[in-house]
Structures are given as structure tokens and as C-alpha cells.
């Protein structure tokens, strides 16, 4: 019960009945992990999560390039070796965003990102099955590598913002497919 209370699923008060919370207004970051591990992903949720990432990722990419440009550029050099499997793209993309969040110098970015690691793994694998998603990310990795090599934090912000917007667009057909599969 303590864990459920801490994560925002319920409110436990001594001497009062336990109250089930509205997850969307009272839940914590661990709700994301629980949904990824045990729950059905609500319709539209991944798109909403991508929209949040669209706001956060440019900020942590900008700060990572400001604080650790060589580290970011060196990591991105490994993108050239990516093949065609969704699993390797998912792993690389996760590791990139985690590196950017940590290198930003603001540990809250990493905490937020870690909150949806399991969900990311599930959804990114579907996303990266599509050649268009891999092509978009390959171009992003190359452009971000160039920005990092030049120490251009503003450019890192912009290219990350652009690819995050594109990822929302690329997700839409997948969302429709998943909705049809749920309807069966």
C-alpha cells in the first residue's frame, strides 16, 4: 500500500478509508513504468508522451551540447553502424536520449526519462520497424553530431525540436494501427 500511495495510485491516511486516485491528475512518474509493464496503453497516450518529449528533448539536447559536446559527438558517431533492426535502433535512441539527459547537467531530465523507459522500449520498437522512422532518426543523428562537434547548442535545440515534431507525425499511422488491433 505504501508503494501504491507513493506512486499516486491511492491515497492512504491513517484512520480514513483508502482512496483510489485519478492517475492522470494525482499519479507520479512511476505510473508510466507501471503502465508500460502491466497495463494497456490508453488511446492517444503515446502521442501525448511524444508531445511532452517534443518540449523536453530540445532543452536537454541543447544543454548536453553546451556542457559535453565532445561526449555527445563521440556517441553519435556510432550511429553510422546501425543496421535495420528495430531493436538496435530502439537501444541506440534510448542510450542517446539518456546520455543527453544526463549530460545536460540537470538530473531531473534523467529522472523523467527513466520514468518511461519500459514504455519507450515497447513503443520505440514498433516505431523503428518503419524505414521512414529510421531514416528520420539517421538524419537527426548526423545533424545533431555536427551541431555537437561545432559546440552549437542552439542548433542542437532546433534539430532536436524538428525531429521530435516529425516523430509525432510518424507515430500517427502506428497509433491508428494499434487502435484497430485493440478493436478486434
Give a verbal description of the structure:
This protein starts with a helix and ends with a helix. 28% of the residues are buried. A hairpin with a 7-residue loop joins strand 1 (10-11) and strand 2. It has 10 helices and 2 strands. The mean pLDDT is 89. With 184 residues, the chain is mainly α. The chain has a two-stranded antiparallel sheet.
What's the structural blueprint in terms of helices and strands?
Layout: H1 2-7, E1 10-11, E2 19-20, H2 23-26, H3 30-38, H4 45-67, H5 69-77, H6 86-103, H7 107-114, H8 117-127, H9 131-149, H10 153-183
Antiparallel strand pairs: 1-2
What's the gist of this structure?
It is built from ten helices and two strands. It has 184 residues and is mostly helical.
Number of helices: 10
Spans where pLDDT lies below 50 across 5 or more residues = none
Q: Which sequence of SSEs, written as H and E, runs from N to C?
A: HEEHHHHHHHHH
End-to-end Cα distance: 35 Å
Estimate the mean pLDDT confidence.
89
Sum up the structure in keywords.
mainly alpha, 75% helix, globular, 184 residues, two-stranded antiparallel sheet, 10 helices
Amino acid at each position: 500500500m505504501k508503494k501504491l500511495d507513493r506512486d499516486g495510485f491511492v491515497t492512504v491516511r491513517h484512520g480514513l478509508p483508502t482512496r483510489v486516485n485519478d492517475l492522470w491528475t494525482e499519479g507520479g512518474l512511476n505510473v508510466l513504468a507501471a503502465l508500460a509493464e502491466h497495463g494497456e496503453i490508453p488511446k492517444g497516450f503515446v502521442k501525448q508522451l511524444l508531445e511532452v518529449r517534443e518540449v523536453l528533448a530540445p532543452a536537454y539536447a541543447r544543454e548536453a551540447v553546451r556542457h559535453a559536446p565532445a561526449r555527445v559527438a563521440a556517441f553519435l558517431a556510432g550511429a553510422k553502424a546501425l543496421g535495420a533492426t528495430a531493436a538496435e535502433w530502439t537501444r541506440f535512441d534510448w542510450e542517446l536520449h539518456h546520455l543527453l539527459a544526463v549530460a545536460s547537467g540537470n538530473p531531473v531530465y534523467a529522472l523523467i526519462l527513466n520514468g518511461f523507459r519500459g514504455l519507450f522500449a515497447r513503443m520505440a520498437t514498433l516505431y523503428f520497424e518503419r524505414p521512414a522512422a529510421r531514416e528520420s532518426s539517421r538524419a537527426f543523428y548526423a545533424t545533431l553530431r555536427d551541431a555537437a562537434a561545432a559546440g552549437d547548442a542552439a542548433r542542437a535545440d532546433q534539430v532536436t525540436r524538428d525531429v521530435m515534431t516529425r516523430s509525432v507525425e510518424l507515430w500517427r499511422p502506428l497509433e491508428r494501427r494499434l487502435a484497430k488491433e485493440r478493436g478486434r
